Fold these 3 entries.
Entry 1:
Amino acid sequence: MVLFGSVVNAVGIIVGTFIGLLLRKIPDQMKQTVMIAIGLSVVILGIDMALKSDNFFIVIVSLIVGSLVGEWLRIEDYLHRIGTTLEQKIGKSQSGNIAQGFVTATLIFVVGAMAIVGSLDSGLRQDHSVLLTKSMIDGFTSIVLASTLGIGVLFSALPVFLYQGGIALLANVIHQFLSDSLLNLLIAELTATGGVLILAIGINMLGIKQIRVANLLPSILIVTIIVLIQYHY
């Protein structure tokens, strides 16, 4: 089953969220300390991923062009509107800031090398080990996020499933057109670009500066285009 890893990942997020909601009564000071710990961990993860690039100039160009496209499309505003709509449907009391939880969790779970590599493995080799590992990590992370940000984390399971499932389903098509060397190069630059976005998420969580990370998401597509052009020409 090509989508097995994606399904398990989504279920892990949902289960983790419900567990986290049961832990929401912990003291606010403890929640703040936990969020700082997560933020610091996310920053370190982002830096580690960003250093995987073989040509960081590609990453820089991708981020610049991607940010222009993202600001034009207003992706961040769109995601927040989805979160706000969910908030209105459910009611904000006892549920935390749904928009913030949805956007933060979605970006953390979607942006990263494991999502891409794991989905490719699921589609190409029916090997779900990477996504199953990611499911455990995301499940634990969703526990902590839900305990501090509320039920909005739950709804991130849908975009995670659609994103990873889409990559898995298209993997066979991608493999027909890309050599192993090109695929490895592409993964390296995607990892580095995703690392910068992860770093930005960590900065947001630490409250250092609010960065519209969602508006940087087109960088993932831009870096793919640049790598393909560079490789062939």
Entry 2:
Amino acid sequence: MRIVLVGPPGAGKGTQAQFIASHLSIPKISTGDIFRANVSGNTPLGRKAKEYMDRGDLVPDEVTIAMVRDRLGEEDAQEGFLLDGFPRNVPQAETLKKILSETDRRLDLVLELVVDDDEVVRRLSGRRTCRKCGRIWHLAFDPPTKDGVCDVCGGELFQRDDDREETIRHRLEVYQEQTAPLASFYADEGILVGIDATGPVEEVTERALAALRRFAA
């Protein structure tokens, strides 16, 4: 199957992408993985991307798209893949459709992880990071034994700026601006399926696999 996974920050896309890809024996392809592979491999696209990253600028769409095109052309992605983090907007979705059509391929399913904003804020704002070892704790789901102190190394725990509520809500606003049209685009294509992404990880995975089975039937 050829699948795109979408959902807001904090929806658990990375975790679910890993489980689903493993279950279906297809490669999980994330833009983060593609960027790291190109930069560490010192490819021409990686060098170009690094120029922007070193300046603190966003990598332009054309560079990202070129990397995705190359990755989807690799042998392991010919029979199926799961894309996480791409496309992020309608122009990218249209470009992806064109890339796949060049090799007579098309997406089978776009799986949307649905979770409300308050739940996202609860998940992300509860994270605390150790200044010393980098271990991430969660005040509700995985709290340290002693408040503010890392169980692993005794380091001080702090809340990163991007885990603060105001930052999270801004990210959610940006996501809605970009992804509401994207969801509509794929709904019009007849391949969008949404699942409830709240609850234990295992339950969300089962919902996702059930949706895949229904769609493939």
Entry 3:
Amino acid sequence: MPITDFSTLQTQLGVLTWPLLLCAFLALMICLERSALFLHQTLLSIWPKKQAWIKALHQSSSAATTENVSVLLAQTSAQQDLLARGATLLLKQVHQPKVLREELLSLWLNKQQRDLQAGLKVLQVIGIISPLLGLLGTVLGLIDMFAQLGQSQGPVTPAQLSAGLGLAMNTTAAGLIIAVPAITAAHLFGIWAQGQCLRAGHVLNQLNLWLAGIEDISIDSNQYQAFSKVSSKSRSSSTEQKSAFNAHTQIESQT
């Protein structure tokens, strides 16, 4: 039965049977592998106990000390999700300057993004090649049809047109069937990978600020201690400028 099915498929697709099957096989394997990674990372990220240290970090109002850094390191070392691995990397470099930790974090995030996007370029290439192979099959089918018409001495019959047109339409449909899921999966997995890295980078930057000595890093209140002094200075300077402007206006009105 499989031999009969493959013979029928080869009859419908012609010489492009193996290239189209190879594209379909590669696209399917990459999609399955990326889907398994997506499910694994998603389950790790939504597991409540896995994210307890993130909630503690967001609600932290005390500066980093050797004791609480050790506790946090023990929590993150036992986990394997993206955020926990990045946090473990930062916590192990707590004695390094903040600038060096930022450089290390940037390099690590770039590597993680490349790992999350592995195979997506191949999916995009398959999505580009498959319709072109289908178009090539269309051209070959039309060439075969016109060759048969050229050899025919009698009137043109539907049977003479069906073989060439069937090959042309079948290869075009097969190319599009492979290309549409491949391009869609490549874009969706790319968006997911970028979102994972952005979220991890945001949390790990907060952790780096906490290690640098900033006490309040709560993202709910949107009040970072690093900018509170700047905000107070800007408010005081703006108040002084307003009072000076009002005094200048009164002097001009009196004169």
